[in-house]
Structures are given as C-alpha cells and as structure tokens.
Amino acid sequence: MLTAILGVTGALIFGSADFLGGLASKRVSPLVATAVAALTGLVLLLVALPVIGGEFSSGAVLWGGLSGVSGAVAISLLYACLAIGPMSILSPLTAVVSAVVPLAVALIGGERLGSLGYWALGIALVAVVLVGFVPEKGAVRPSLRGILMAIGSGAAIGIFLVLIDLSPDDSGLAPLVMNRAVNGSIMLVTLGVLWVVGRRPRGGQETGGGGADAGASGADAGASVADVGGEADGGTVVVAVADRRAVVRAGIRFAIACGVVDAVANTLLLFGIRVGDLSVMSVLTALYPAGTILLAAIVLRERIAPVQWVGLVLALTAAGMLAVA
Question: Which stretches are transmembrane (predicted)?
C-alpha cells in the first residue's frame, strides 16, 4: 500500500514539476530552465543530505551519475519530439515506453505480482495513454523521426528508473545527488557550447566581417529605435526592456520552483522503489501527466478532455488495486 501511495503522489508531483517547467520554458530557453531546475534540485538535496543521510559508495556514485546522463538524454529527446509533434500521440507514447522498459526489466529480473497486481498494471498502462492524450484538431500523422525520438525519450526515462533501482539500498540520497550534479553539469556545458558557437562569425567570415555585420545590425537597430521614437516616446523602449527582464526573472523563479518540486518527486520515487517493486513504481510514475493537466485546469483554466477524465479514473482504480494486491 505504501508503494502505491508513494507512486501516485510522486507522479502528481512530477506532473507539477513539468507544469512549472513549462511555465519557465515559455519565458526563458528550455535549456536554461532545465539547467536552473537541475542545479536548484542539487542544492535542495545537499541541504537535505545531512538530515536524510547518504552513503557515497562506488555503486551510488556510478548508478546515480549514469542516471544523470540518462535523464539529460531523456529531456533533450522529449523537447525535440514534442517540438516535431503531434503532442497528442508522442506524449503518451513517451510515457508508455517509460513505464514498459523498467517494467520489463523488473519482470525479467524476477519480480512477481499476484493476478490482481498484473490486472492493475494493465489498467494503469491504459490510464497512462488516456491521461497523456491531448486531442488536437487536424492532428497529422507523426513522422518516423518523431516516433523514434519519443521512444528514445521514454526508454531513457525508463533506464533512469532502472539505474536508480540498481543503487545500493543503504545509499540514501547519494544517487539523487549524483544524478542532479551530472545532469546540471551536462546542461551547463551544453549552454556554454551553444553560447560559444553563437558568438562565432557566421558564413566563414573573419572577425572584421562579423564586426561589419554587427555594425549593420546596429544601424538597423538604430533605425528601428528611430521609427519607434517617431511613434512613441523613448520611455516606451525602456519599458519594453524592463518588461522583458521581468519576464526572464519570472521564468527563473518558475525554474527554481520546478527544481524544488522535482527533487521532492525524485525523493519519493527513490523511497518507493526501495520499499516496493520497480514494476509498480515505474507504471505509477508514468502517470505524471495527470499532475500537469490537473494544475493546468486549476491554474490556467484549461479544459480536461473526456478521455483524460476516463484516464484519471482508471489511474485511481489501478492505484487502489495495487494498494491491496
């Protein structure tokens, strides 16, 4: 029963983290939001480490670090496939694969459930599809590239769960600390590389040419400001810049909140795997879209589709069955 409670609660909190991450990504770059969230989670876990405890054994460092790599791959592929679309197909596909991979590993590894438990897992997998399904008018058939990216993202999430499960039971928060440290480092390095590449002269021109281009751009910008000045006073430009800074600050705050919530969700996931079965936790965790759509309905007044309501009911049914299985 404790595993079911931790699994469902963790899924809802993971969904809340995704909701906050989505709000952050609308205001700053998704990569920046992810990096800030990862580093915030790392700080929170380091603060909690003396209280909860953690043993940095070779196993904890190895599996935790590898899970950080897997998490970075999962996030990158997830953003890429959702950008290609359609989300209504690729999002639930990612969630299902993220559940199937660790479920298969657990069952092959010898985990066994009663007949009620297997029925519950089946119902939960159906719920994952329905909860993550967002009906889109005129949705197009997904491309092979989008499907492969969704499968890759789901597999990477599943591998993350398997790697966390492989960490020693007495390692405490150590695997999660390593996960956040490696994940955050990868994101920072990626940001640094993109920043350097973005500053390089384009079109094979020398730095001088680049300066000429910059000068031309500056002239264009000056003309634009002049045009603006013809229609409004100079204070309009200042206000626009101030508004942009306010948007960025809001995005960073949302990213920080995302990192805090995500760290809590990962901690619940870790505890759930250690007190229960990987097969159960992997399927319940895949219900994370439920938290996102519920918050979107409450905060943003977005409508929950009937098919998603069915998915939510099935999810609660499956959780109840797993609690008594």
Answer: 6-24, 31-54, 60-82, 89-110, 116-134, 146-164, 176-197, 254-273, 279-300, 307-324
Q: Which two tokens stand for residue 100?
A: 């199937």
The answer to whether the beta carbons of residues 161 and 63 sit under 8 Å apart is: no
Q: Phi, psi at residue 248, to the nearest 5°? A: -65, -45
Find all residues with CB under 8 Å of 62, minimum gap 6, and list them: none
Structure tokens at 145: 């590239």
pLDDT tens for each residue of 184-196: 999 899 989 988 9
Query: Helix, strand, or coil here: 284?
Result: helix
The whole-chain average pLDDT of the chain stands at 83
Instruction: Determine contact, residues 301/27, Cβ cutoff 8 Å.
Output: no
Q: Please check whether residue 308 is in contact with residue 133, taking contact to mean a CB–CB distance below 8 angstroms.
A: yes
Q: pTM for this one? A: 0.80
CA distance 165 to 273: 6
For residues 60 and 71, give the distance between their C-alpha atoms in angstroms, rounded to a whole number.
16
Nearest CA to 26 among 263, 253, 286, 304? 253
Whether residue 103 contacts residue 285, with contact meaning beta carbons closer than 8 Å, is answered with no
The structure tokens listed for 283 are 């399927």
Alpha helices of 109-143 — where are they, by DSSP H? Answer: 115-132
Contact 42, 182 (CB under 8 A): no
